[in-house]
Amino acid sequence: MTGDLAGVTVVSIEQAVAAPYVSGRLAEAGARVIKVERPEGDFARGYDHLVHGESAYFVWLNRGKESVCLDLRDAQDHALMGRMLAKADVFIQNLAPGAIARLGFDQAELRKRYPRLITLAISGYGEDGPRKDLKAYDLLVQAESGLSQITGTEDSLTRVGVSVGDIAAGMTAYQAVLRALIGRGVTGQGRHLSISLFHALADWMNVPYLQYVYGGKEPVRSGLHHPTIAPYGAYACADGKDVLISIQNEREWRVFCADILGLPDLAGDPRFDTNSHRVEHRTALDEVLRPVFGGVARDEMARRLEAARIAYGRVSTMDDLTNHPQNRYVEVDSPTGPVRMLAPGALADGVEEQPGAVPMLGQHTDAIRTEFAG
């Protein structure tokens, strides 16, 4: 790891995805992250047992952390938590609304006591507003934010296939914490950060929101086809696999007609001679494209598209992703053995950073108790 945040101590009372995401990114940047778990552990440890006994979610999000098990209703553990926070730079929590204050660690009070402390609260709907006390999980927020209404096909709404609300909140929180650390370096003062799944995902919804509020445009669910560009979508090939193509301008459209479809005159057809006309006559256009794609295996069609410099993407199965030639990997130690996983998106100076190990439940409890003994 680069160690950019070496010397920064993060204490996180966390569970599930959003808070472990931000603390995990801080750990990758070199911060010391102390993950406070209930005696039974973060319930994400039990989401599945598919990574030779470990949870895929937990392995992904918790590498490089220290795990300490505390019962914060116990007087001694409560006092230990207080001593840890006195030395912390960042305090993260994503408990139910009001729970952290009931446990005696109100973040506003901590900020008064420790002016340099950066506190982060991750919730479903934020700390204010009429819905601030509602429970919120990823799919619920996909629905509540309007994302579900624009995702899927004309006939069916669909969940985004990963926990996009949790990830959006975690990414937003990571940015906010880094900004707060930079600001503290200038002013010497910490700050309180409030991040919600709803607001993080609602921010991502600004384009359809603005189109609707200012243009009166209702979003259209179009599956794996772009609602306002054609042809831009997925087409089945002879082997039953799909390839997705994207035509962005009229020059590409002419090349596509000549080199891929073998129909150069189609480019001038008045139904298809502009993008607006192609969108208007999408059904007729698809009737031309489908038999051409359906007569060629996917990888051969991909070869032809690449030769013609037409943008495309294979609609990858999990097997395709597993064997994708562009994959980068990192190896992570876990309690049950090494795990090879897809690398983080950022590459620094061409060097793949190797993450820390995934902790066993309570692995560092004794050491933490000794270090922070009263």
Compose a concise summary of this entry:
By secondary structure, the chain is an alpha/beta fold. The protein has helices at 18-28, 56-61, 75-86, 99-102, 107-113, 138-144, 164-187, 197-204, 206-215, 250-260, 275-280, 282-294, 298-307, 318-322, 365-371; strands at residues 9-13, 32-37, 66-69, 90-93, 118-123, 152-153, 156-157, 192-196, 232-236, 242-246, 311-314, 329-334, 337-342.
Could you explain the architecture of this structure?
The protein has two domains: 9-205 and 327-371, Crotonobetainyl-coa:carnitine coa-transferase, domain 1 (Rossmann fold), CATH 3.40.50; 232-314, 2-Layer Sandwich (formyl-coa transferase, domain 3). The chain is α/β, with parallel strands linked by helices and 374 residues long. The mean pLDDT is 94. It is elongated. The chain has helices at residues 18-28, 56-61, 75-86, 99-102, 107-113, 138-144, 164-187, 197-204, 206-215, 250-260, 275-280, 282-294, 298-307, 318-322, 365-371, and strands at 9-13, 32-37, 66-69, 90-93, 118-123, 152-153, 156-157, 192-196, 232-236, 242-246, 311-314, 329-334, 337-342.
